[in-house]
Design a protein that fits this description.
- By secondary structure, the chain is α/β, with parallel strands linked by helices.
- The protein folds into five domains: 58 residues, 2-Layer Sandwich (Alpha-Beta Plaits), CATH 3.30.70.20; 272 residues, no CATH class; 60 residues, 3-methyladenine DNA Glycosylase II, Chain A, domain 3 (Orthogonal Bundle); 88 residues, 2-Layer Sandwich (Beta-Lactamase), CATH 3.30.450.20; 33 residues.
- 41% of the residues lie in helices and 14% in strands.
- α5 crosses α7.
Length: 567
């Protein structure tokens, strides 16, 4: 499972995470911005900068709870940056952790002291040209994935977290080890077999704090743990501050190496590029991905922990030795580490392929490449390369989409069969389409900014504004000599009116002809009916006379036939 997960329902295609990611380890597919895990260095910038909270850090608390529920002895190695997060003593934290089920807790600073001792030994041997400290797991990921040429410069020494975990396992036997700190990349290091596999899970300060809150445990009010153990070299607690590693080593240990400290991903990229190109030599490099080192990491900043305040809490002054140092702090042992080239080789497009992609978004010449960065990439060419590599969508260019939308809108308006006029709140013309100009018989320059002609009917505007519904009316305008259907609507968010005018002159003339034809037809039909009535009456009269004569004739015939029969 990924360390940083995407809440798809919250991703709104703003591209901010892509813009902010210094190494562009984010791909945009199917309308979603997903982490490219093989290229990500877990700096946490995307989590920190996402305005919708769509990037979520993996929470391993349920897994740790299960270990405790299964009856396993679970120990915490606590990052020295805890001083910048919790407002309590280490002894109180120790008591709080034990209260929620942990077997014990020690400071990762114990491992830091071990690592600093190994750095000094490495510099004494002097067989490496340049040495990059490997305490920051994000720095290790940056080198392995993006600067494979520098893998040979990584100090072959474990991080303080892994060094401390190794010592605790040697001391306490069959235990589980959980790291608690402000770092996201420690979650990956804990699962990385090359790192040692000695830490089971890595939790963040806010998740462990939430766990304590669920259990009703307040470290600021709890009785301190009388068995809490400290470190034998408290100066190692400076590790999470800028130049903290250098301060723990001592000037006499650098020999022929020049110590240099860089913090922040941008500065790391600058220095590593110089190392790759052979521009600097004989350096011992303390590199931290986070600006201000660990106390300036994304978890700290997400929760409003100010770097400068945390640095003040972790004093630069030498610290006195703890009264009761942990037994593990007195153990010295080697802490080796191996690294590998994990760089992903992405195919690169040809110049022709780049030009073809750019042409699809309307960029057919250099001048059209705005390089505005709205898509998240520093230039149009960089975005085109990302499209070729399947990391970006062709339609991520906002200026192109806006221009296309504007062109479509303009085309629809200009070719509309109706006149369209836009008015401001004072009923002055702001814009109108060509058909409106034709209908008004005006030039554009003579109309823009002028009050709307009176024939439109000002009362309609008040009505549609007050009632919030379109007002439709039909009338004949003597000013333009046409019959029109006028639809007026008010757009409150823009404080403007839109007037749609449809020329219905021909329609009205057709209706009039139909009415005239209907009236004429009715008159003709009435006359025909009247004439038919007269004829019918005459026929009926004639039919009546004939019937009477026939009856008389038949009666006489009957009488005659009767007389003959008697004879």
């Amino acid at each position: 499972m990924s360390v940083i997960q995407l809440n798809e329902g919250s991703c709104v295609n703003c591209y901010k995470c892509i813009r902010e990611c210094p190494i562009k380890a984010i791909e945009f597919k199917d309308g979603r911005a997903n982490i490219i895990e093989d290229e990500c260095v877990l700096c946490g910038t995307c989590v920190l900068t996402c305005p919708q909270g769509a990037k979520v850090v993996k929470n391993e608390v349920p897994s740790v709870k299960q270990l405790i529920a299964d009856g396993r002895k679970v120990y915490i190695t606590l990052a020295p940056s805890w001083v910048g997060w919790f407002d309590c003593s280490f002894a109180q934290l120790s008591a709080a952790f034990k209260k929620i089920g942990f077997a014990g807790v020690e400071e990762t600073a114990i491992g830091a002291a071990e690592v600093s001792r190994e750095y000094a030994s490495l510099m004494q041997n002097g067989y490496m040209n340049n040495i990059i400290a490997t305490a920051c797991s994000s720095v290790v990921m940056l080198v392995e994935r993006h600067f494979p040429e520098l893998v040979k410069m990584l100090a072959p020494i474990s991080s303080p977290m892994m060094a401390h975990a190794r010592i605790m396992r040697e001391m306490y036997g069959d235990i589980k080890v959980v790291f608690v700190g402000p770092c996201l990349s420690k979650k990956f290091e804990a699962s990385d077999p090359l790192a040692g596999g000695l830490v089971n899970y890595a939790l963040t300060f806010p998740t462990i704090e939430e766990w304590m809150h669920e259990k009703g445990v307040d470290p600021t009010t709890i009785e301190p743990d009388p068995d809490a153990k400290g470190v034998s070299e408290p100066v190692s607690r400076l590790y999470p501050t800028a130049s903290g590693i250098l301060k723990t080593i001592g000037d006499e240990s650098y020999h022929n190496y020049k110590p240099i400290a860089v913090d922040g991903l941008d500065r790391c990229l600058e220095l590593f590029s110089a190392l790759r190109d052979g521009e600097v030599q004989n350096l011992f490099v303390e590199a931290n991905i986070c600006s201000g080192s660990c106390i300036g990491g994304p978890i700290m900043r997400m929760h409003k922990k100010r770097t400068i305040v945390s640095a003040q809490k972790i004093s630069d002054a030498p610290m006195p030795q703890d009264h009761i140092p942990a037994q593990t702090s007195l153990q010295h042992m080697p802490h080796p580490r191996v690294f590998s080239n994990r760089a992903v080789k992405n195919d690169m497009p040809t110049e022709e392929q780049i030009r073809e992609i750019l042409a699809q978004i309307g960029k057919t010449c250099k001048e059209q490449e705005l390089n505005c960065g709205s898509c998240g990439y520093p230039s149009c060419r960089a975005k085109a390369i990302a499209v070729f590599q399947g990391k970006a969508d062709i339609n991520m260019c906002l200026p192109f989409l806006r221009q296309r939308a504007e062109n479509l809108s303009t085309m629809v308006i200009e070719h509309s069969p109706n006149a369209i006029i836009a008015l401001d709140n004072d009923l002055c013309v702001q814009d109108l389409n060509p058909l409106a100009l034709t209908m008004l018989g005006q030039e554009r320059a003579d109309v823009i900014g002028m009050p709307l002609p009176m024939f439109f009917g000002e009362t309609d505007f008040d009505k549609c504004k007050e009632e919030g519904i379109p007002v439709v009316k039909k009338f004949f305008s003597s000013d333009i000599g046409k019959s029109v259907e006028q639809t007026t609507l008010y757009i409150p968010e823009h404080r403007m009116y839109l007037v749609f005018i449809k020329d219905i002159t021909e329609e009205e003339e057709r209706k009039k002809k139909l009415v005239d034809m209907r009236d004429s037809t009715v008159d003709i039909a009435q006359k025909v009916i009247e004439k038919q009535m007269i004829v019918a009456q005459e026929i009926a009269s004639l039919l009546g006379e004939t019937t009477a004569e026939t009856k008389v004739a038949l009666t006489n015939l009957k009488k005659t036939m009767g007389t003959i029969s008697e004879d």
